[in-house]
Amino acid sequence: xxxxxxxxxxxxxxxxxxxxxxxxxxxxxxxxxxxxxxxxxxxxxxxxxxxxxxxxxxxxxxxxxxxxxxxxxxxxxxxxxxxxxxxxxxxxxxxxxxxxxxxxxxxxxxxxxxxxxxxxxxxxxxxxxxxxxxxxxxxxxxxxxxxxxxxxxxxxxxxxxxxxxxxxxxxxxxxxxxxxxxxxxxxxxxxxxxxxxxxxxxxxxxxxxxxxxxxxxxxxxxxxxxxxxxxxxxxxxxxxxxxxxxxxxxxxxxxxxxxxxxxxxxxxxxxxxxxxxxxxxxxxxxxxxxxxxxxxxxxxxxxxxxxxxx
Length: 310
Ligand SMILES: Nc1ncnc2c1ncn2[C@@H]1O[C@H](COP(=O)(O)OP(=O)(O)OP(=O)(O)O)[C@@H](O)[C@H]1O
Ligand SMILES: [Mg+2]
Fold this sequence. Notes:
Elements (H helix, E strand, L loop, with lengths): L8 E6 L5 H14 L4 E5 L5 H5 L11 E4 L2 E5 L2 H13 L2 H8 L2 H9 L3 H13 L14 E5 L3 H18 L3 H14 L4 E8 L2 H18 L5 E7 L6 H8 L6 H30 L3 E6 L8 H15 L1
Parallel strand pairs: 1-5, 1-6, 2-4, 2-5, 6-7, 7-8
Antiparallel strand pairs: 3-4
Helix pairs in contact: 1-12, 3-4, 3-6, 6-7, 6-8, 7-8, 7-9, 9-11
The chain binds adenosine-5'-triphosphate (ATP) and magnesium ion.
The site of magnesium ion has 5 residues, from helix 1.
């Protein structure tokens, strides 16, 4: 029992293309079934979630309802900053004057970590009773579909770094609140997505070390995605290997079975290596045969994700 769906933040990260968006949505669907008002936040201009629900043309930064209890947003640092500044200034015209000025924009674009800070700050804001934008309601759970590991960690580090540099003022105060939230084991949970291969496993173990070093937090769970089924028993494999049928088709079939079995063997050994190396709960998702996963496929995977992280 990791209780990840009971927290306010579920941060999903991992190497590029391993299934982060798929797992983030699957986890969110599980949270919705558990009655939690949930939002999946995509970052870095991604908008894959609305498309899975057949929605297109959604503006960046808009909180879009997809189903009962489920929303999504693609966090737009510029809009987030506008909301933040407007909360501080309490004047809409003044905010617009400031945030839409070229000098201000140039300053924000050049300030190291500014985009990361407002991005993770927005994820935090989504879960606050008093939102930066007063008309918006808070969420019970924010699932962040984070960028690949290195950038994901940068998002997590920035509030602390920024707070230490700025020290005083509303930005620093807010940054420290976010940093504290990220370190709070009752509020924030960390989930890595991996594949059962040499490099992704190595990177997941490295990610766990980095998370501990930079945030003082462990990974709570790892979902190993696209795991092949163990279709043949050892006895069946021996039987196939011993066949002495020389017809080309029989040879080809023998080869297919042997190479599939080898891939399964490698995956299982990487899975064991991961389980030995991490303190996190490890769950798996099966490889689904489809050109690209649709919402129905992700719904089906969601029950498996729930078993690992609920
Ligand atoms: N278990 C699975 N079986 C088969 N295909 C899968 C599985 N999980 C994900 N995919 C497919 O793999 C591709 C990548 O998945 P996804 O977009 O979730 O990865 P990602 O880590 O978010 O990628 P990126 O780093 O580009 O954001 C998608 O086409 C998705 O449909
Ligand atoms: Mg993605």
